[in-house]
## 1
Amino acid sequence: MFLAVWTNWESMNVAEALLVAVIAIFIVFLVLAIIIFITWSMQKGMEKIDASTNILPRDENKILSEDENAVVAALVASMEFYRETGKEVRIVSIKRIED
């Protein structure tokens, strides 16, 4: 696009070619800076939304925050169920059975 307005671009010397290259590189970096700014501002907006959203676990699932082994056991059991049956599974609650 830039070469379209450049007069007599077919007989361009090295200095003019370097100028065109520098301008093209500047345009690319400008576009990258705009993309970075947009993603940064979107991330800041999402952090504000996440800070205002407070999701608490249900009372019956308190074991998830207390026992890491229960979480691992539930994940392994759900993966095994899916592998054997091919059906998706949804864990509703986890209860510890004491011996």
Note: Residues 57-99 form one domain.
## 2
Amino acid sequence: MEVLEEIGGMLEDILIPISICVIMPITMVWLHMRSKKHESDNRTGIVLAALEKNPNIDLEELIQKITPKSATLKEKLLKKLMWGSVISAIGIGFLGYALYMDFVGGMSVEDLERSYFCGGITMLIGLAILLVFFISKRMLAKELEAEANKK
């Protein structure tokens, strides 16, 4: 019985990281690609239906109307700012939790190390995204100004 519990613990130690680091990202990419293909198929269906009903329709105008608008440069930068802030806050939360549990006690050293590691990595990822935001903002200042003046 102890052997089965030990094997179960080893499988848990292997399967959870594999499912989080391999299966979940692959599934997320697959779902994203599937939704993009579905959107493209819908637009194609709309264009074909419009052509069947009215063969003299202006296709360029129709395609411009049904094509989703791309995000402006400012919107893209603000999205980076938002994600960097959120991910950094999550990392700081992990680190705060780890510090609290380290101070109060009641958590094994192994779990405490995992909490510190997850918090540190998450916070560093968020800070990297924020760094990209600030560098992009500085490098694209002229483009942002031109985009603002265009509207």
Note: Residues 91 and 123 are 4 Å apart (CA to CA).
## 3
Amino acid sequence: MNKGTKLCALAVMACLLCLFGTSGFAELPKGSIAVLTKGPSVQHSAAVASILTRELLAKGHKVVDPKRLEAIRRSKAAALALEGNADAIIKLSKQYGFSTMITAQLQAGKPVLNEFQLYTGTSSLAIMVMSSGGQMIYADTVMGKQVGYTPDEAAQKSIEAAAKLAVQKMLQ
């Protein structure tokens, strides 16, 4: 191979790496972010929302204040937004003034006693990020698996692990 061919091949490889070597996540739009969660209990949903909010704030993003977020949660459109209904998200964003909505749906299995007499908890978390215009920006499902001395501890730790992994993947 001559120098020109090598240089051309290297440039093509660099372009492919830029296209396919990234996480595939489009940057979050500027403005505030509303975080809605749904799970098997209020406590578990609150834990997921807290982790997502904390990590978003740590990365410099604006998050909808708690009072406004509570009003969003009480609205009928919030249930539809959690299901990914773009019209509901557009309506909520116009009414409450956020630019992005992150919805998180949590499933937590019943912790099982393992051979070490500890409990293993497994959880899955489906994350969707949609713009105020109803456009899907990001979607993923992650799993969390953790061990605890009690079923409640194992479940809580697995939920926290899933939430931390979800936000880490979403923001990379």
Note: The helical segments are 3-20, 42-58, 66-74, 76-82, 86-96, 151-171.
